[in-house]
Amino acid sequence: MPLTLTRPDLIRSANFIAGQWSATPAARLAVTDPATGATITEVPDSGALEARAALDAAHAAFPAWRKVPAKQRAAIIKRWNDLVLAHQDDLGKLISREQGKPLAEGKGEVAYAASYIEWFGEEATRMNGEIIPAPLPGRRMFALREPVGVVAAITPWNFPAAMIARKIAPALAAGCTVVCKPAEDTPLTSLALVLLAQEAGVPAGVLNIVTASREKTPEVVDVWLDDARVRKITFTGSTPVGKHLARRSADTLKKLSLELGGNAPFIVFDDADVDAAVDGLMAAKFRNGGQTCVCPNRVFVQRGVFDTFAQKLAARVAALKVGPASDPASQIGPMINDRAVEKIERHVQDAVAKGAKVLAGGKRLPELGATYYAPTVLSGADARMACACEETFGPVAPLTMFDSEDEALQAANDTPFGLAAYFYSQDVRRIWRVADALESGIVGINEGAISAEAAPFGGVKESGYGREGSTHGLDDYLHTKYICQGQLD
């Protein structure tokens, strides 16, 4: 089906540098529909030249932008929010077409992205400093919060609107300027959002975006890593890439926000409301086809409710409608690319070979297309299986039985990752014990949908550091300057 938008000009096929849309270089990158493999359009396959031009523009724009009063910056960001919401249908269609998620989820992501833009537009006027009581007479001491400088944002493909909003909105609110490299699979949503930011009044050079293929991305990002003018890197993606960015940032001591891999546990205790736990897992696991960093990757169910939970979950999962975003009934869309499907298939085959039983799904759906995989429930999963130690990033829920609370906690924490964790219990004493014991930056208690613009989002251990959203998310784009004035007596 053709991609029909109310505003066709939202589909951009150029970089945005220094306030201008530039189609250079001549090399092009095809953006495809994961449901069909058909090309939607082509964007620049940029390299070092474009990355440096974007950085030059951001660096030149920073002195003026940081001096714009916070109230004026806030007004611009709020206009951006209004434009995003006004184009929710078009942006939702664009997300669904290039990323594959059902249209209802695509529109929902736009609203989620806008919530961050609105939040940080309001936070721009709340960057208060401190007056510090002086230890000596004749002094005044202050702590001021200032923008760090040029920010390089590297965003993932699974939430092409929300992730760019969650990074760019706080940067603009703080008074930083931005260079951005969106994921090669989903650059169109990011480009459309930048167009709306331009229309909202973001000055030339303050926000710059360059697109690049998987092969050319290191060339683009290395320019920003090596240049001391970039004072912060914000990245969402894999832990190995995050570690590389941290190492390469060391020479210029850049500030980093790294939201990296996850291996989230989902624990159901005997005293849980089983129906609520099934609802929570459906929301947490199968949103976006399981392609989210906070998806439960390991599901631990206590022996007393295991059979009931497994039966109810399998029935719900088997009833999910799989299909392209063009079908309004679709609840699970295609995976992002062939590599994603191959990993899912490998994990399921490995689990079955090691004794797991398929309760639902467990196979490709070639009648729909090469990138479709049936939502799957596995019973009898254990720590020997790849799905227990690698992030599957797909619609697969492996169930593991446990007996004691200590056993569940040990298994849940037995991972180098610590982004999100979930558990269901109605025992208030257990709730606080388990919440305290889980080694995770985010914990959902009797709740599967945990993300919100007012809440800090981020992990511990090898899931990264820094926070997005909330006042803590704004702090990551600021540094503190201490000022001491003497001889006042």
List the keywords.
15 helices, 21% strand, seven-stranded mixed beta sheet, alpha/beta, six-stranded mixed beta sheet, 22 strands, globular, 489 residues
Tell me roughly what share of residues is in helical segments: 25-40%
What is the number of helical segments per DSSP (H or I, 4+ residues)? Answer: 15
- Fraction in beta strands: 15-25%
Unreliable runs, pLDDT <50, ≥5 residues?
Answer: none
Radius of gyration: 23 Å
The average pLDDT value, as a whole number, equals: 97
What is the overall silhouette?
globular
Largest sheet, strands/sense/barrel: 7 strands, mixed
Q: How are the strands of the largest sheet arranged?
A: 14-15-16-13-12-18-19
InterPro entries: Ald_DH/histidinol_DH (IPR016161), Ald_DH_C (IPR016163), Ald_DH_CS_CYS (IPR016160), Ald_DH_CS_GLU (IPR029510), Ald_DH_N (IPR016162), Aldehyde_DH_dom (IPR015590), Aldehyde_DH_Superfamily (IPR050740), Succ_semiAld_DH (IPR010102)
Protein name: NAD-dependent succinate-semialdehyde dehydrogenase
GO molecular function: oxidoreductase activity
EC number: 1.2.1.-
Question: Could you write a compact summary of the structure shown?
Answer:
Its EC number is 1.2.1.-. It is built from 15 helices and 22 strands.
What does the model show?
The strands form six sheets. Strands 14-15-16-13-12-18-19 form a seven-stranded mixed beta sheet, sandwiched between helices. Strands 9-8-7-10-11-21 form a six-stranded mixed beta sheet, sandwiched between helices. The mean pLDDT is 97. The protein has helices at residues 48-67, 70-86, 88-99, 103-123, 162-174, 187-200, 217-226, 239-249, 274-286, 303-318, 338-353, 386-389, 405-413, 428-437, 470-475, and strands at 15-17, 20-22, 28-32, 39-44, 130-132, 140-147, 150-154, 177-181, 207-209, 230-236, 255-259, 264-268, 296-302, 357-360, 376-379, 396-402, 417-418, 420-424, 442-445, 460-461, 464-465, 478-485. The chain is globular. By secondary structure, the chain is of the alpha/beta class. The longest helix is centred in the N-terminal third of the chain and has 21 residues, at 103-123. Helix 1 crosses helix 7 (217-226). InterPro entries: Ald_DH/histidinol_DH (IPR016161), Ald_DH_C (IPR016163), Ald_DH_CS_CYS (IPR016160), Ald_DH_CS_GLU (IPR029510), Ald_DH_N (IPR016162), Aldehyde_DH_dom (IPR015590), Aldehyde_DH_Superfamily (IPR050740), Succ_semiAld_DH (IPR010102). One of its GO terms (molecular function) is oxidoreductase activity. Its EC number is 1.2.1.-. Belongs to the aldehyde dehydrogenase family. The active site is at 259.
